[in-house]
Specification:
Chain B: Its EC number is 7.1.1.-. The complex is a heterodimer of chains A (154) and B (425). Chain A is built from seven helices and four strands; from the N terminus they run ααααβααβββα. Chain A is of the alpha+beta class. Chain B folds into three domains: 211 residues, Rossmann fold (3-Layer(aba) Sandwich); 84 residues, Ubiquitin-like (UB roll), CATH 3.10.20; 90 residues, de novo design (two linked rop proteins) (Up-down Bundle), CATH 1.20.1440. Classes of the chains: A alpha+beta (154), B alpha/beta (425).
Chain lengths: 154, 425
Amino acid sequence: MLTGEEILEIEKAIHVVPHRQAACIEALKIVQSRRRWISDDSLKDIASFLEMSPAELDSVATFYNLIFRKPVGRHIILVCDSITCWVMGYEKLHAYLQSKLGIRYGETTGDDRFTMLPNPCLGTCDCAPALMIDHDLYRNVTPEQLDEILDRYV
Amino acid sequence: MSEKPLTSHIRADGVPLTLREYELKGGYQSVRKALAMTPQAVQAEVKSSNLRGRGGAGFNTGLKWSFVPLDAPKPKYLIANADEMEPGTFKDRLLLERAPHQLIEGMIVSAWALQADTAFVFLRWAYHTAAKAITTAIAEAYEAGYLGQNILGTGFNLEMHLHTGAGRYMCGEETALLNSLEGKRATPRAKPPFPQVSGLFGKPTIVNNVETLCCIPHIITHGAEWFQKLSLTGDAGTKIYGVSGKVRRPGLWELPMGTTLRELIEEHAGGMHDGLSFRGALPGGASTDFLVRDHLDVRMDYPSVAAAGSRLGTGTVIVLDDKTSVVGFVKNLIHFFAQESCGFCTPCREGLPWIEKILHALQSGDGRKDDIPLLELHTRLLGPGNTFCALAPGAMEPLQSALKYFREDFEVYIREHASREPITV
């Protein structure tokens, strides 16, 4: 079941486009922002609200890498793995996070705290390497800073 | 003296100006001026300014606009492509986060010129600071009567919305962006029909890059001739250039169009890190051909970079130093393109992962004699004309130029394992 709040927000998104289905990516984002990920049930509820088939909506949901169709942790770590961050040594950050958190890309820590994902260029190449945790961008990151950064997320 | 119309009003601390502060610096004057002109006159001014699209393709903006039928029934759409995701590119972030009103001003003037009544800013998900800045600025512009119904009492109506994406590089491709805004998978569309005639929801649509739209207010306020004179060469205006990689001061600078690659790297970026030397650079994002030492004096405008065998692209330079593996560099780029391929057409979907595997094999000591011809075959099979959109041909640009300039770097992997029997393909 979609909550009243979710419905209200989705209706707002529908308002700016000519038909309901056009708001489906927005609707996925709205629901995900409250439930962390899009479960099969959420998918069916959104599809039915937008008068489209669950399969049609899933074809869209699975296309976009920032719509999560599997459970994720409370915080999402996006490690920029594109060219400048590679040149500037992002692999050290990735290796440190992998060993400290004990997870590989696409996995979630046992305590449900972090999910780590690779992400294409975060667009801050003059301050590489960079990563994002939730909505926060970290630039010129060194492995030494990572403990302190991770501590901010419980 | 070099003028910096796009960035001179930006505060040193990066906090965006309020609408009132922006107006005090001359902001929104071009809206008043444009609305007193005919849409055709605004288009003519932009066309004669010789402004070329800053998103990478470099098409004449005024010419692109001229294909929109002015008398077509509403709705007509104007879209700011703020889906900046080309690896190594970070210029639009600056304009979005720090000068949101300049973009909105440019969009209002452009919408008038096109007689568009609905505008979207298509912003990539990761740009949260920009999302906040744009949201605030749009609300202020509505409040001040620059957006909405009967703008400044002229009878012109324009609604503007911010749309944030859900990932995927493909959304930056003009027609894939339209599909994404329609709530579909971001796969490219066949052209024709071109978006100017049948774009978003089948209506006439213009998609312009953020930096392009930010030039519009200045062209209208100061005139096409003034805009052309900002440049050192035949291409008009200033350009927001960037340099990243192992240089002393990576960053962004608004400079006259046609500034040389050498000036960018040696002067503005402060040269290479100690102990490293310049080996090559991608002049405008991941999907451009390498330039090398011989090209340092190339002027960074569209025809000069093209004459040097590459493309200006986004004008954000990615530097390759002499201690970084060329094969690793190219593999990282190909990995990106393979991952971001929408999977819609076969050469791109199948070819890119194959190339990544070959490069991986080279690095792992499994290189074979015919790997280089095989890579070269791919640069042709995935080249222009063989794929649905420009993603795969773009991906081939750094590969083909690396094979041309840095062939030895590939060959050395193979020589070290020359005992292996070549496979036949």
